[in-house]
Amino acid sequence: xGTRAAADGRLSLGYLSLVVPLVAIHAACVLIFFxxxxxxxxxxxxxxxxxxxxxxxxxxHRLLAHRSFATSRPVQFIFALLGTLAGQNGPxxxxxxxxxxxxxxxxxxxxHSPRTGVFWSHMGWLFSSRMHPVREDLVSPWARLPExxxxxxxxxxxxxxxxLVMYLIGELWRxxxxxxxxTGSQLLIWGSVLSTVCQYHLVFCIGxxxxxxxxxxxxxxxxxxxxxxxxxxxxxEGWHNNxxxxxxxARLGFRWWEIDFGYMILRLLAWFxxxxxxxxxxxxxxxxxx
Length: 290
Hints:
Blueprint: H1 2-8, H2 13-27, H3 32-35, H4 39-65, E1 70-71, H5 73-85, H6 91-103, H7 118-122, H8 140-143, H9 146-153, H10 156-176, H11 184-207, H12 228-233, H13 240-245, H14 261-271, E2 275-276, H15 282-286
Antiparallel strand pairs: 1-2
Helix pairs in contact: 4-5, 4-6, 4-11, 5-9, 5-10, 10-11
């Protein structure tokens, strides 16, 4: 990790702004042993984790990276905003690196292939200063939208804003009913820190675990695998071989038992007319899923 970053030789302020928070938020998880827990803390954890996974899976991944469905510009902004809440940098950075991964999957140039090392594929690549710049050539359509440039430039604002809200709710709750045991620091740690770290590793497992362990339903030019556990926990993103076989598909779980919560949400939103043109693989358009 350190060797790769040092070899790059560019420890810029931008690079440090990416790495230092990543290290700090992992270290802050130890504070759960000091703040305790409560029903409100667990609800804050679950609610934030849900919003973050929706932002990454539906917003950053299926909408912005692969355009697997269409929606209005305000809804598009909300999805991207939820993506920034996940703390994985702004939408332009995320989408650019993801598309680069698809372009070079498990070959020379792939930003996070397990062939370069398991830790590197999981999160080590984030410590390289070479990965800090936005891949402008791959995100030019989105970069033309002022709201996407705004989210990219100020991607830390939703994170700190959410943390502040968690703290204030906890403190108000403590002052109103101290017997419950809810505090500002407790909701901050559970609802902002621990939820974000759990979400990090669920998403990171897609680039590491899902290129190493699981089944291959389709012959693709990479090492992608379908992993049931990651598929269940990461909103369907664990059906990774399916995804590499048909990247434009909004549905990642192709068979009835390949649970895809992200696609379920999209179907619900489509029923209400909030999203439309939800793309599916050709074989799912012609025949029922089995």
